[in-house]
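It is worth pausing here to work through a concrete case rather than discussing structure prediction in the abstract. The textbook approach is simple: state the sequence, then state the predicted structure, then interpret. We follow exactly that order.
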Amino acid sequence: MIRHIVMFKIKDEYKDEIPQLVKNFQGMKGRIEGMLDLEAGADILHSERSYDLALITVFDSRASFDAYQTHPVHLPVKKRMHEVRSASVACDFEI
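Step two, the predicted structure:
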C-alpha cells in the first residue's frame, strides 16, 4: 500500500476558497479504483510553519497510485490546486 500526503499553501487571493478545496478533495473519495482512503482538511492552528490544507490518501498499490495521477476524477481537482497554490510539499511511502 502507498500513503500519499500533500500539504498546500494557498495564495492569499484564494484563501476564502479553502472550504471548497477541501470539498473538492472529499469528492474524489470512493470514485477512484484502488484508492482505499482519503482525508482532507484545512489547518486550524495557523502557526508560522503551518500549511493551509492537507490531503492524505491511501492506495492499494503503486500501480493504483500511478493511475490516480491521470484519473479523470483527479485531473480537475489537480488543475485547480495548481492554480490556487503558492507552494506544496509531498511525501509518499509504503505502508
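Step three, interpretation. Strands lie at 2-10, 35-42, 53-59, 85-94. The helical segments are 18-26, 62-68, 74-84.
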